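Quick start: read one record
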Amino acid sequence: LIAKDDMSEIIAEFALNDQFNNFLPQSDLENATRLVLKRKKIKAQDFTESYKYYIATGDLEEILNDAQKIILAKDPAAKDYIDKKLKENQNVPAFAR
């Protein structure tokens, strides 16, 4: 099981990579994801199983909130973008708002 703090950091990096991909569509998002996991010395299967575990236990909300804090600490301007996307997508769970 991957620690909650590590899960938050990984998810934050995934989200930042996803945004980078919006600016450079030719970038390889899958490769960037692998690089994040490799740098953290985590296997993809371990991440997937940990993610499933945290969904089942209800701890994912806390992890996602912490990931959002990490993103905002790295890029305070991201708050406007996050707020815009939350308004556009009403399917986002309430805890992310």
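The chain has a mean pLDDT of 84.
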